[in-house]
Design a protein that fits this description.
Shape: globular
Largest sheet: 8 strands, mixed
Strand order of the largest sheet: 6-13-12-11-10-7-8-9
Bound molecules: pyridoxal-5'-phosphate
Radius of gyration: 22 Å
Number of strands: 18
Distance between the termini: 32 Å
Helix content: 25-40%
């Protein structure tokens, strides 16, 4: 059951129950590692969603963020031809990934004004895998990573699997989002290993500002922490000028993560990367250790690596279509919000989502359930993304306009 944007994992799970077994009638042991002690029962919202689907009820899914199912036009021929490179018949084990593929990634950054060396790039099958490399490199079991709240819900699972503890630092909203540095600095302990940033953040759609980048880098440099920066939505900027990538950050050891899942709308092709930057000494040591991790898995397959230059060249037309859709849906959202007074939206600077502020008459999850049951509209509750209080719902701006507009109308009608 998919509950979160574009993922195949069971993010509808909560954490906490274990499956125990009895041995010899006396000793109670669990067969499985504590790190997988998730509550495997589906939550109420995912159950209701499944019931709706099973009953073939008409449902407007305003969480849809699988770009391959949203009616975007892909150059199918070019994509499929790129996968047929005869060079894929040879096995060339390269821990960091094929040079030709990494050159294409370096070119991606060069087009964004950042000089990233081919030798500083590590290819992975997903951003999730890139996170796992970074966490494995930086953390002993029980070490801590600071993560933003609200943000991408997968971090808890990624951290659990790597035996890492996540500690949240708040993003505060006041006509735009910013990092609460006071709380962030207080959250740093001797076990903290890294600060994680999502740039722009999912689902708030705000970019990390220049002054924040400088402050984060200074904190990390001073306390020997790393910066782990997720830039999968970097190219989806609503403003005239796209904020800079962290990939060139030399002030602190920085791991910049991205991939074609979002920037080219090709999540099924499984190509992502991690670019290492920072002071020379820590950067060289990080790369040497990362190379061993990457060499142990050699997880990249030949056909997609050889196809990566073509895939990346498909990024621009995809992003153009997607941003046109986001702009149209956002305009429609604002038009409909202007016709009522109960709901508003938070400011956003980019990304694929909008955050609605709604009357907190029920918990966010109950509101999402009621919307599903009474209006057949599916949205994500803010609690999925760790909003600090009730009254927030998240909608995807990449849904087809023909669904988005009536879905939104039903949603807003609910609050009248
Ligand atoms: C912030 C963020 N990072 C990473 C991903 C997923 O990237 P990948 O498919 O490369 O693991 C997502 C998907 O929704 C995301 O929202």
């Amino acid at each position: 059951m998919r509950l979160l944007p574009c993922r195949g994992y069971n993010a509808c799970l909560s954490r906490g129950t274990s499956i125990d077994c009895k041995l010899g009638g006396m000793i109670r042991v669990t067969m499985f590692a504590d790190r997988t002690k998730w509550n495997l029962a589906a939550n109420r919202l995912s159950e209701a969603f499944a019931r709706h689907r099973a009953a073939v009820k008409t449902l407007v899914d305003l969480t849809d963020s699988n770009s391959t199912e949203c009616g975007f036009v892909y150059d199918q021929r070019a994509i499929l031809e790129a996968l047929q490179n005869p060079a894929a018949l040879e096995y060339k084990p390269e821990p960091q990934g094929l040079v030709s593929a990494r050159k294409a990634v370096a070119e991606y950054y060069a087009e964004r004004g950042v000089n990233v060396q081919v030798g500083d790039i590590f290819l992975t099958t997903s951003t999730s895998e890139a996170y796992s490399y970074a966490f494995r490199l930086l953390c002993n079991p029980g070490d801590e990573i600071l993560i933003p709240a609200p943000s991408y819900p997968l971090f808890d699972f990624l951290a659990d699997i790597q035996d890492v503890k996540v500690v949240r630092y708040p993003l505060v909203y006041d006509h735009g989002w910013q990092i609460d540095f006071h709380v962030l600095e207080r959250a740093i302990t001797p076990r903290t290993r890294a600060i994680l940033v999502v740039h722009p953040n999912n689902p708030t759609g705000h970019f990390t500002k220049r002054a924040e980048v400088e402050k984060l880098s200074a904190i990390c440099a001073e306390r020997a922490l790393a910066l782990v920066v997720d830039e999968v939505f970097l190219d989806f900027c609503l403003g005239a000028e796209r904020p800079a990538s962290f990939a060139g950050n030399a002030e602190a050891l920085t791991f910049t993560l991205s991939g074609i899942s979002k920037i080219c709308g090709l999540p099924q092709m499984k190509v992502a990367w991690l670019a290492v930057s920072g002071p020379q000494k820590s950067k060289s040591e990080a790369k040497a250790r990362l190379e061993v991790i990457a060499d142990t898995f050699l997880s990249m397959n030949a056909p997609v690596q050889l196809a990566l230059p073509e895939f990346l060249s498909q990024g621009r037309p995809f992003q153009k279509q997607l941003m046109e859709r986001v702009r149209r849906n956002l305009a429609e959202l604002d038009r409909r919000l202007g016709l009522q007074k109960a709901c508003t939206r938070l400011e956003l600077e980019g990304g694929w989502y909008a955050v609605l502020r709604v009357p907190a008459t029920l918990s966010d999850e109950d509101l999402a359930l009621a919307l599903l049951n009474e209006k057949s509209v599916y949205v994500h509750p803010g609690s999925f993304y760790d909003f600090p209080r009730e009254g927030f719902l998240i909608v995807s701006l990449i849904s087809r306009e023909a669904e988005f507009s009536p879905g939104l109308a039903s949603l807003l009608q609910f609050f009248l």
